[in-house]
Fold this sequence. Notes:
The chain is mainly α. It is built from 15 helices and no strands. The termini are far apart.
Amino acid sequence: MSAMTWSKSPxxxxxxxxxxxDADTSIARLRELGYKQxxxxxxxxxxxxxxxxxxxxxxxGITTLYGTGLSFGGPATMTFGWFVAxxxxxxxxxxxxxICSSYPTSxxxxxxxxxxxxxxxxxxxxxITGWFNIVGQWAVTTSVDFSLAQLIQVIILLATGGNNGxxxxxxxxxxxxxxxxxxxxxxxxxxxxxxWLSFLGQFAAAxxxxxxxxxxxxxxxxxxxxxxxxxxxxxxNTENNxxxxxxxxxxxxxxxxxxxxxxxxxxxxxxxxxxxxxxKNGPIGIISAIxxxxxxxxxxxxxxxxxxxxxxxxxxxxxxxxxYAIAEVFYLAFKSxxxxxxxxxxx
Length: 347
């Protein structure tokens, strides 16, 4: 990792005149800030966008907390709450993009805090922001990776017969091993060169985009029983195991699925020192990652929810996926082509 050099005073006079000769305006901006360029600029606008879009990852976020959305508010909260969370996220993202265009540095948020808070408060503001940012990164990484480990556990269970068919349920120790292996693999990947990371970022973005379109079309298409448009857009589920009956509170809890998904777009800011013309492409990466994720994510929610018929059954720990709602939706959709739907027996 390269050291960051930050002069408190921007360049002036003859030094500033030299800046304008740079073809890359972000390099010129760093010099104006008195910031020494250390990292190699290899990322294009597409690569910068791909990092944020793949970290936002609507496939990951929605899949992980779809059960939470069903429990608190159900289809109505997910379909309309998605835009509520998306609107607020876009406001935050637009503000971050504006700051990013002025301070295109790899430090991102903690550097911005230092610059914007003034000399007196810069150390404290930067320290607090930096720690909140890194702790958030730790929490998100462990959370997402553990969710993947749980999904692998459920996939194995369903592939071997399901909960009601004698399927294999990995123990908590095996689940922990899955989690550790995923974390280790991600650590290795992040140790690769920026060229490889750029390729993997673009591949992940394409995978997320393609995966969403495939699932939103295939799942409701293969399902023999589908929900009505009225159910998808108006049904508000108030039944939950938490004993919460206030509709407003239920709605806000249901927003957790959307808000958990729409985060991580600050990655574009952290990659600006390795992005060409970062003062322009960094902000574009932030805004486009949020905007495209909102559109694609809503399509994914609709596609899956049109295959939902019986919410209590999907959330029940007695179903084949042991209450992992979205896995049960997929399982029932494809299984229904070869056997009667269990919805009939629980109706």
